[in-house]
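Here is the promised in-class demo. Please do not try to memorize the tokens; focus on the logic of going from shape to residues.
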């Protein structure tokens, strides 16, 4: 059921809300990283079939990312969900995909930016 709370439309009465939001955030994060890593692998592919395979994989993962974002918007307003999922995606792509998987160097300035993104996520996700 849709209910207006302090001028915001919020879904109420959903027994899965407590479980759904963390699961959806993890799925959104994971598939965002998978999508971006797939596009990097596509760019590195040496043949047309390899390029195409990773493009398809990346776009399918991106589709799951959009679906999880849409479901998250059932439970929370856009001004909270969008910065949270986008910030987590930046962290996941930079730290997991770029640094850990592709072994790309990340300098002090980028780590400072990562810290600021984390701070921003905490501020956006916090109570007003």
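The designed amino acids, position by position:
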């Amino acid at each position: 059921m849709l209910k207006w709370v302090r001028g915001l439309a919020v879904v109420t009465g959903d027994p899965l809300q407590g479980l759904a939001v963390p699961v959806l955030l993890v799925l959104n994060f994971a598939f965002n990283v998978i999508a971006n890593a797939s596009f990097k692998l596509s760019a590195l592919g040496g043949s047309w079939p390899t390029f195409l395979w990773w493009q398809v994989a990346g776009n399918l993962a991106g589709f799951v990312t959009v679906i999880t974002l849409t479901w998250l918007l059932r439970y929370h307003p856009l001004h909270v969900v969008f910065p949270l999922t986008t910030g987590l995606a930046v962290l996941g792509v930079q730290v997991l995909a770029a640094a850990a998987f592709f072994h790309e160097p990340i300098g002090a300035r980028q780590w400072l930016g990562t810290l600021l993104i984390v701070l921003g996520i905490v501020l956006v996700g916090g109570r007003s």
